[in-house]
Amino acid sequence: MKVRDGLDRLLPRLWRFCLVLSGDRNVADDLVQATCVRALEREDQFEPGTRLDRWIFRIAQTVWLNQLRSEKVRRGGGLVPVEQAGLIDAGSDAEANLFANEVFSQVMALPEAQRTGVLLVYVEGYSYREAAEHLDVPVGTVMSRLASARDRLSVLREGFARGAVAGAKGG
Amino acid sequence: MRMTSFTDEELVGYLDGQIEPTRWNEIDAALAQDQVLAARLAAREIDNAVLIAAFDAVTAAAPVDRLRARLNANGPDVSAPRVQAPPRLPRWAAMAASLIAGVALGYLVGASNLLRASKDWHVAVADYQALYTKATLAAIAEDPARQRPEVADVSEKLGLPVALEALQLPGLDFKRAQLLAFNGHPIAQFAYLDAEGHPIAFCVTSTGEDDGAMTRETYGALRAVSWSKNGFGFIVIGPVQPEVVHDAAELLAKRI
C-alpha cells in the first residue's frame, strides 16, 4: 500500500496523537508535518501487512523526542495545559460536549508520559506490551503511568457514572 | 488467606484485563470479600467508551484541510533526488512563475479536497470501525426492548426514519444504535456481529449529496459498500468478504 494514501487517512488521528504528545495545537501541526516528511522519506522501510498507523505513530514519537533533545521545542515540564477551549464542537447535546471537553482537558492536564499512555492504551487500543514497545519503556512503567493517570482522572468519576458523553451511550 | 497485597498497577491491569490470568482470578476472587480492595478498584475505574468518544470529538476538530495541504505540498517525490535548481530568471519572471505556481497549487489542492469531501466521513467511519474487535459488541444482548428506543432516538437525531425491523439482516445480529459525529454532523451507527463475531457497521449521515450508486471501497482489512440517496450518505463496513457488506447494503438500501 502507498504510505502517502495511508497518511492522508491517518491525518486526524496523527494530529490528535501529536496534540497529546506536545500539548500545543501549533506544535502539533508542525509535528504532523515533520512526521509526514519523515514517513515519506522512509516509505521503503514500511513492511506491508503491518499496521501503518502504529508505524507512523512511532515515527511521530521519535520525531518528538528528537525535537525535545535538540531543544527546538520549549517545554513547560509537560504540564502546560493545551488551549483546548472550543476544540470539541458544541453541538446539539451541550451537556455531553461539556463533559467531553472536561474529559479531554483532564487527560491533557496529565504529565506527558501519562497522557500518552492513556491515549495509546485506552483510546488507540494498544496492549500494555505494544505501548511499552512504542514508548521504549518496560511494561511495568506503562502500568505505573496508567495507574497514576487513573488516580488523577478520578475527578471525572461522577461524569463517568452518568455516561455523559454522546456517542458513549449504549456502550 | 488475605488478598489485599495487590499493587495499584495490578488493579489497573485487572481493570484493563491485561495481567496474567491467574493473578486476574486472584484479584477477582478477593474483590468479593475485601471491601477495601473493592473501593481501591472503584476509585480507579474509568469509562473507556467515554474517553474514546471525547477523543473522537477531538479528531473531528483536526485541521485536516491545512494538514493535507501541507502534506500535498511535499509533492509526490519527497524521497526522490532533489531536482536541479532552475536556470536563473529575471526577478519579474520568477515572481510571475511563482504566482502562477501558487494559483495552480491552490487549485489542485482545492480540487482534490472537493473530490475527497464525500470520502472524509467514510474514512472517519473506517478509522473508528478499525478499532472494533470481536469482543467490543459481544456482551451486548439483542434486546428489542432496549434497541427500539435506542434506534428511535438515533433516528430522530439523524433526521431519517429508521425502524428496528428495517435493520434486521439475515446472518447478522443487530447489537446497538449509537450517535457519533463528524465535523459537527451526526452520524448514526448501527452495529452488527456476523456469525463468526466480526463487527460490521451500517452508518448514515446527512451529506446533501446527489443520489449515488453503490460503490465498493476498501480500507485496510475493512470492506465497505457506500451509496447516497435523498441527501443522505450510507455505508456498510466490516472486516468481512465484500459480498457480506454488499448483500447487507442491498437490503438496507431497499428498506431505508
User: How many DSSP helices of chain A?
Assistant: 8
The strands making up the biggest β-sheet of chain B line up spatially as: 1-2-3-6-5-4
Helix content of chain B: 40-55%
Structural class of chain A: mainly alpha
The total beta strand count of chain A reads 0
Main sheet overview of chain A = none
Number of domains of chain A: 2
Reported by name, the CATH topology of the domain at 127-255 in chain B is Phosphorylase Kinase, domain 1
Q: How many separate helices of chain B?
A: 8
Please indicate the percent range of residues of chain A in DSSP E strands (runs of 2 or more): under 5%
The CATH architecture of the largest domain in chain A would be: Orthogonal Bundle
Which properties best describe this structure?
heterodimer; A: 171 residues; mainly alpha; Rna Polymerase Sigma Factor, Chain: A; 64% helix; globular; disordered C terminus; B: 256 residues; alpha+beta; Phosphorylase Kinase, domain 1
How would you characterize this protein structure?
The complex is a heterodimer of chains A (171) and B (256). By secondary structure, chain A is an all-alpha fold. Chain A has two domains: 3-69, Rna Polymerase Sigma Factor, Chain: A, CATH 1.10.1740; 94-162, Orthogonal Bundle (Arc Repressor Mutant, subunit A), CATH 1.10.10. In chain A, 64% of the residues lie in helices and 0% in strands. Chain A contains eight helices and no strands. Chain A has helices spanning 3-22, 25-41, 52-69, 94-108, 112-123, 128-135, 139-152, 157-162. In chain A, helix 1 packs across helix 3, helix 2 (25-41) crosses helix 3 and helix 6 crosses helix 7. The longest helix of chain A has 20 residues, at 3-22. Chain A starts with a helix and ends in a 9-residue tail after the last helix. Chain B has 256 residues and is an alpha+beta fold. Among the domains of chain B are: 8-45, no CATH class; 127-255, MucB/RseB, C-terminal domain (Phosphorylase Kinase, domain 1), CATH 3.30.200.100. Chain B has eight helices and six strands; from the N terminus they run αααααααββββββα. A six-stranded antiparallel β-sheet of chain B has the order 1-2-3-6-5-4, with helices on both faces. In chain B, strand 2 and strand 3 (199-206) form a beta hairpin. The radius of gyration of chain B is 25 Å and the shape is globular. The N and C termini of chain B lie far apart (60 Å).
